[in-house]
Amino acid sequence: MQRVDEFILQDVGGEAILVPIGQKVVDLNGLIALNATGLFLWEQLAQPREVGELADLLCGEFEVEPAVARNDVLAFTQRLREIGAVIE
Amino acid sequence: MSPEPGAYRGVLDRLARAAQAKGQPYNGTIELTARCNLACRMCYVRLPANDAAARAAELSAAQWLEVVAQAQAGGMVFLLITGGEPLLRPDFFELWAPLTRRGLMLTLYTNATLVTESVAERLAAAPPSRIGVTLYGATAATYEAVTGQPDGLERCLAGIERLMRRGLPLVVRSTLSTYNVDELEAMRAIAADFGVPFQSSWYLTGRADRQPSEAAACRLSDSCGLDLEAEDRERRGLPAAEGRRTPPPANAEAFYCAAGQASFVLDPSGAMHVCLDLRQPGARPLEVGFEAAWAATRAFVAAHNELGAECAACDVRAWCGRCPASSMIETGTLTEPVPALCELAKLRAARETAGV
Ligand code: SF4
Predict the structure, then answer these.
(1) What is the pLDDT of residue B334?
(2) Contact assignment for A26 to B167 by CB distance below 8 Å
(3) Which of A3, A81, B137, B336 is a Cys-bridge partner for B142, taking CB atoms 3.0 to 4.6 Å apart?
(4) What DSSP element (H or E) covers B163?
(5) What's the alpha-carbon Rg for chain A, to the nearest Å?
(6) Is pLDDT of B20 > 70?
(7) ipTM reported for the complex, 2 dp
(8) Is A7 part of any domain?
(9) What is the CATH number of the domain that holds A74?
(10) For position B356, what pLDDT does the model report?
(11) Residue A43 domain-assigned?
């Protein structure tokens, strides 16, 4: 999967948020606040990635067990799918 | 009176605090024009729609886009476009459409009376995060009494309907006065029928340019306003004792909100001010650059952030909504107490202390 162009990453006081543009504005009706893991994964999704690959990258960046990393990736990418922020 | 579910509101508050801690101008307001097609009695800004001098002083769409690009580079993420009535500008969409592609959390305030099918269509093609529509009454007679526009309500409701049909995210807002307070429930019902949130405010301030205003004459009585505040807290599930306006520690400083510390206003001519009610210091991003204009605005607030002696010693300060902007409007100083607000604060404190 890979991220779409209709979400712009912005910084408010050091907090990362995704701001939708175009029709995504109406679909989402708000913004997405990213924590450190979310921001890292969003950056990785600039190119096509598989879940396993994202989990490995996460383990390389943060001190986290592989099983936990996989769960985090699944939860985060599921949320991104729901709001149409990634395509397969 | 927040339309957002609690969790989202919490995120917005957190972002505001984070921005303020860093002095990031994350929240901008552009007052696109001071002109309006309505003539509301209590308005703090209105000029006639055909005011040629005011029109001539307004920045062009291209100039605004330049200012916005600079502001974004300087940290702006939220932007409100307001007026006057922004849709009076014939070149509105020359500015609007590009703005919606910049990754800003964009809000538009309008009275919706100029929202034709074609305007609604163009807004749907370039949607904002939120459109705030002001409603001045629930009957044609009241709407006219406030705005001077006989067919105003009809046009406003038609505008709302056109926006709703296109699924645009709306909030209905009302400014309450002696003219329309009896229609509060009916206005709330109109919003509910459209399935959109309703917000209202009641304390009318005078004009920021200190010109004569009818605000005080049509302002609700203190007890009526305080009843509305109590009702609103109940509706939002807040404890009755949360009527304090400026609880400590924030009220140790004169500027207790984000104005001039994380938010700014640009007037129609492109001058930067602390807020809509406080037209200072007026540096122009197009002349000095956004960064320098923001630095001047922050410096102004920092230099005037001390309370005046009377307010500093006041024991009902936490129940008082006075700020340097309200003092400027009513007294011409940044620090003097505002007698009407003193009365209100005393009453608010007394009610709360009595557990009303
Ligand atoms: S304006 Fe009046 S009530 Fe408010 S803090 Fe100052 S002295 Fe107190």
Answers:
(1) 96
(2) yes
(3) B137
(4) helix B152-165
(5) 13
(6) yes
(7) 0.92
(8) yes
(9) 1.10.10.1150
(10) 47
(11) yes
Cβ separation of A25 and B22 shorter than 8 Å? no
Q: Do A22 and B105 touch (CB under 8 A)?
A: no
What pLDDT band is residue B235 in, cutting at 50, 70 and 90?
confident
Phi/psi-derived region of residue B309, left when phi > 0, alpha when psi is between -120 and 50, beta in every other case: alpha
Q: What is the mean pLDDT of residues B202-226?
A: 87
In a domain? residue A88? no
Cβ-proximal residues to B11 (8 Å cutoff; 6+ apart), any chain: A31, A33
Instruction: Please give the torsion angle defined by the CA atoms of residues A82, A86, B3 and B6, in that order, rounded to the nearest 10 degrees.
Output: 70
Residue with tokens 């007679």: B141
The CA B346 to ligand 1 mean position distance, Å, reads: 9
β-bridge partners, A42: none
Range of the domain at A58: 2-83
**Cα–Cα distance between A53 and A71 in angstroms, integer?**
13
Q: Judge whether B102 and B68 are in contact, CB under 8 Å.
A: yes
Prediction pTM value? 0.93
Our count of domains for chain A comes to: 1
Torsion B215-B221-B224-B225 (CA) sign: positive
Per the listing, tokens 């002083």 go with B57
Q: What's chain B's average pLDDT?
A: 92
Looking up tokens 């609007």 gives: B96
Contacts of A21 in chain B (CB under 8 A): 100-103
Residues of chain A positioned with their CB less than 8 A from the CB of B8: 30
Residue B330 Cα distances to B277, B315, B340, B341, B347, angstroms: 11, 21, 9, 10, 20
Q: Encode pLDDT of B297-353 as tens digits.
A: 999 999 999 999 999 999 999 999 999 999 999 999 999 999 999 999 999 999 877
Please name every residue paired with B131 in a beta bridge, in sequence order, or none if there are none. B108, B170
Q: Tell me how far apart the alpha carbons of residues A88 and A75 are, in angstroms, rounded to a whole number.
A: 16
- Look-up of token digits 């729609």: B49
Provide the 10 A C-beta neighbour count for residue A55: 22
Q: Indicate the burial class of B116 (C-beta count within 10 angstroms; 0-12, 13-18, 19 or more).
A: middle
